[in-house]
Amino acid sequence: MSRTKRSSSRKSSSRLLPLAIVALLGLGVGAAAAFYAVNQVGMAPRQVGPYVERRASGHNNIVEGLGRKLAATLAGLDGGAASAPPLPAWSAGAQAAGTQVAPSGNAVPVSNPGALVQAMAQARAGDVITLQPGTYSFSGVNFIAASAAGSKERPITVRAERPGTVHIEFKLSEGFLVSGPYWAFENLAIRGACTDTAQCQHAFHIAGRANGFVARNNTISDFNAHFKINAHGGSAPDDGVIEGNTLSNTAARKTSEPVTPIDLVAGSRWAIRGNLISDFIKQGGDGISYGAYAKGAGSANLFERNVVLCEHNLRGYSGQRVGLSLGGGGTGLPYCRDQRCITEQDGGVIQSNLIASCSDEGIYLNRAATSKVLHNTLIDTAGVMVRYPESSAQVEGNIIDGRVRADRGGIIHAGDNLETGLTRLFMGSHPQRALFRDALGLDLAWAGEAPRRVSAAEPAAAPADLCGKSRPAQPAYGAVENFAACLKR
Questions:
Q1: What SS3 state is found at 46?
Q2: What is the pLDDT of residues 324-345, one digit of tens each?
């Protein structure tokens, strides 16, 4: 394992270099030359393998066969578990206990789909719309509108009294279209049920003046982007909270549309914490998907204490899955908060997250200025990428089963991290996995003594860990201090 302490700015090499790397390795050319090429290009084996297979495609049988063989070899060097391990009983994601106390306000009970639509259309600040147990199915309309205005002191709440008792099925492109401020949704189970599954775009579309949105303790499945947040009519929704939700898909999404369970564009000061996000496979378009991102010239957005499993029940698909991102793949200028997107994000923070089983980067920063990447644990990913001169990141206290890479002028201020150099990755060596009892099985109890930081510049400022616990003066690397504290009791 290596501890990094550096500031770096590296430019990418020729796009043909990955093929040269594999040719060197496959033909048995000297190790020194191969390792030099590996470190120059900066790509992990899991990224090189698909590239080689694509480049070999369309050539004669011998070349195609060699491409497949080399891709499989690289996947074997870098890959994780072949099948899904059972999920631990995380304290992340939606919990059976739910939110214990109903908010005070005007009680509005509803017991059928029509009554829910009417209650939301007539809602006033302070209403608490409580769905009675049952299944609520919606089809034949464009969306369910949430346009009334709540207030910070008196939000409009839509909830189930107990999780697991209210099931909402949307056969709609969008489920709830939230355009009014201060709406909250909690304890709901929501499923996309479109005949053409790709047509179920969003469970929630939060747009325009929808400041102060809250989603807490919901279980949401089978959408392209479970939460879509964007500007509209000259306003961008700010100060939202997406907390303690379970977001997943039961099948790959056959669409060219963005596949990103939390798709945040142009909003600022959102807190996205304590969610369990998994299985966001895009089978269409560019094949690139993200667990969550914030982009579009917003600022001060926070991702903390989330568990992101790019592939869990859905495995073996082609394409690139990225865990968390500030900047995503970029934003068209009309959709940017400032209509310019000189930077995609300013002052974003990614801290105390567990990110695992990603075919590409665990954390990706794209034109993301003054970012912080603190005390995350990345397992079975390519690592951390900081790209373009507009990006600068403090990278501190992380465990990275992969490498940290600056590309095309990106700036990394790397403090004390545990990471794996590219040379070791191409040798099939993963020392960070050995820190845990069973890293690929998602058992993150320490295999021995917890590795603790010896040079934390500001130990008192270390963020709370994945379990929400405060850290000692000499914190452990990564997201977890004591794995037992992250499990339900």
A1: helix
A2: 999 999 999 999 999 999 999 9
